[in-house]
């Protein structure tokens, strides 16, 4: 297929519309439940009060606000694809924002900003504190200000909004790749996200990976759990090593989320039994380098790809805990592992060698 034919085909699959809407209209959409900002996303985003205050400052000064991207569902409701923090800041400032349990969030109280230091302590409209509330003129100025919306229409390919979300929230964003995936997963299958979170919280799994507090905050434990689901049972002969591994993980996650036949119970048993065994054998040393008769350093991804994926593939026919410990120690002198686990080796080149190695080493 020629480049032009590919362009023409994809343009047919992604249909969009767009126009400007007043902030008052954005508020009405939320109050009438005609827009879903996915309040559960709040755990993945980290706007400070200063950033929120700067947004209100920009509106008051007439500085253009970036376009909000939404996806139109079959019932006509808009899913926010990009612009959660801008909208939730406005909704919180207006005092209408609710959390994922439907409870009101405390209204936003602004901080001083660079150009409007007198915003410090200001609220939208507090009947008991009119001195620190915006004036009617200032409130109308905000309500009549406009923010553009770009709509991915419901006739578009179902994957379009997930692809758009990933592209808009990667790069300059504060989110990690897994935090972006978590948001996508909540959009397509919130129940699966909660299940994945439960797996990642499994004590034996947490003990085995023993990652830093920073990595936990950035949801790296969920990424490792997701990698296990995908790569422990992958047909490695069909793995496309030309693709970026991060993009591959995201696309496979969406497939799992949309697969009505995906058996969570079986996978849960596979996952828990695998990390139960690691807890019995190597514990918190499971994915640390073994050098000079001892385990050293912190978590390493390469041994995780060999050991965890290898054991998961061989479930339920595991070696004994003692054998797992002995084979883990020998792994670090294995020629294939040494060749393909060094720094600078890309994951899509590494995995086709390390995954089969793990399946062989940890067979019964």
Draw up the topology in text.
Elements: H1 3-13, E1 16-22, H2 23-31, E2 35-36, H3 49-61, E3 68-72, E4 78-82, H4 84-94, H5 136-144, E5 146-152, H6 160-168, H7 177-188, H8 190-200, H9 203-209, H10 213-217, H11 220-231, H12 245-258, H13 264-281, E6 289-291, E7 294-296, H14 301-314, H15 321-331, H16 335-340, H17 347-361
Parallel strand pairs: 2-4, 3-5
Antiparallel strand pairs: 1-5, 3-4, 6-7
Helix pairs in contact: 2-4, 7-8, 7-12, 8-11, 9-13, 13-15, 14-17
Task: Offer a few descriptive terms.
alpha/beta; 17 helices; 2 domains; 5-stranded mixed sheet; 364 residues; two-stranded antiparallel sheet; elongated
What does this protein structure show overall?
This protein has 364 residues and is of the alpha/beta class. The chain has two domains: 3-160, no CATH class; 176-361, no CATH class. The chain is 51% helix and 9% strand. The strands form two sheets. It has a five-stranded mixed β-sheet with strand order 1-5-3-4-2. It has a two-stranded antiparallel sheet with strand order 6-7. The longest helix is centred in the C-terminal third of the chain and has 18 residues, at 264-281.
